[in-house]
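Support request, priority: normal
Reporter: lab tech (M.K.)
Component: structure prediction queue

Hi team, I submitted a job for UPF0301 protein Psuf_023140 from Phytohabitans suffuscus yesterday, and the status page still shows it as pending. I've pasted the exact input below so you can check whether something in the sequence is tripping the parser. The sequence length should be 184 residues. Please let me know if I need to resubmit or if it's stuck on your end.
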Amino acid sequence: MESMTGQLLVATPALKDPNFDRTVVLLVAHEPGGALGVVLNRATEVPVSEVLGNWGAMARDPAVLFEGGPVQPESAICLARTHPGVRRARGFHRVSGSIGTVDLSVDPESLQTSLACIRVFAGYSGWSAGQLEEEISSGSWFVFDALPGDAFVERPDDLWPMVLRRQGGILAAVAHFPPDVALN
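Reply from support: The job had stalled in the queue. We restarted it manually and it finished. Here are the results:
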């Protein structure tokens, strides 16, 4: 399977893992050895500025930490979107298009002219070699192209149905599935 880096994983209603119920994950790495991503629609109430000081000024609303996934929740991954035309920025590692990860040890003030916004994730989602591909083929995930704004939506709780609706057809209908189909 070719690399899915930069694509979205959208949890299907069949996925029963509570860590990923109705989640949208941006894959920041997908290689033969495994995959790594961050959950885009699980905001916490902890302000970025409370944990990372000056980085909080660059955080997109809501300017809070997000739960990136169940792996190493004490670690942080920072996604950023560059301003149009920016090709390089110190500490910025491009994932796809204008989206990439940023080294949080870099001084945020030195990046203000390069980066339009950031979002910080506590923890990440990880898969060993072949695990993600197996989950996709078993019907746990839909795989879609990401739009540049997906990682920075102002209403992250709306991201799961929004991504499904924009696919059209039967996938748009999935956006209206109740959380527990058995109760319908």
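The chain has a mean pLDDT of 94. The beta strands are 7-11, 24-31, 34-39, 43-47, 64-67, 71-82, 92-96, 99-102, 115-128, 141-145. Let us know if anything else looks off. Ticket resolved.
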